[in-house]
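Sequence, structure tokens reproduced for absentees:
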Amino acid sequence: MKPTGINAFLERKNIHPSLKTYFIDAMGAMAFGLFASLLIGTIFATLGEKTNLETFHIISQYAKEATGAALGVSIAYALQAPQLVLLSAATAGIAGNALGGPVGAFVAAIAAVESGKAVSKETRVDILITPAVTIICGVAAARFAGPGVSSFMTAFGSLVKTATNMQPFLMGILVSALMGIALTLPISSAAICIMLSLDGLAGGAATAGCCAQMVGFAVLSFGENGIGGLLAQGLGTSMLQMGNIVKNPRIWIPPTLASMVTGPIATVIFHLENIPAGSGMGTCGLVGPIGVYTAMNGGGGVWAGILLVCFILPAVLTWIFGKILKQAGWIADGDLKLQL
């Protein structure tokens, strides 16, 4: 039966309001926008500090200033916006980021794109009406909703950070496990950490959990996926295993247990910290370890913590836990095979 009324209109305009559309597709694309602007800008800033080259600082400044526009365009692309809507979403993203940070850009971009799609190609003056509606709705959402939503997320993030400082062992376990799971799920752990402004010890715990998932799955599945799988998961994303997790959820146990060990080691023993831009990235492009280095200004002790928490312990612990589960018959050969 064909949809009628408003449902038919939404179907025709390719508008599909749902949790998946906004919190998986749009937020997942948001991570790419962050990586192409704020995250890479942070890396250039660190290079500038360590090399004293002004060029890196200039590049960093421009990249960070492009954050709002990058978020708007990346979300519009994920929502399959028409060309005029996609380009106009840059303005909405800039307004949202200015008034409410990344979460403001997220809200503004969604409002802008869905409104723009609704009017796209509906009039003979589409070149004027579509960008005008897209920008007006995006800026309005940024102005009225962005600051409030951003304040709530920041307050919640502050609560998590305060709790981690007060109970670094227990919160180290909790934050590490949850953020690691978020990284492997088809949502954006990077966007979550940036929205929550998750830095300090809580950022260090989040980094430990994300690294445990990526390095853990890379090592656990090495026998089935080889070097290609090792690099794709260890430097790319553990999200590649989601299809296999659906088939056998038990394969998720080893890296998750590893994260529950490395989290408190990060917070209690090494006191690792991170910046929001690096907390939810894990070893993807080595952004997580670079963020720790940036947050703690380098030093021998920092390198020891980074190597152990981000690479060595996740690999060893996940391999051990995986061995136990394989002997118990919970994980079988082929359960972690990727179609690369």
Summary: The chain has two domains: 5-144, 159-327.
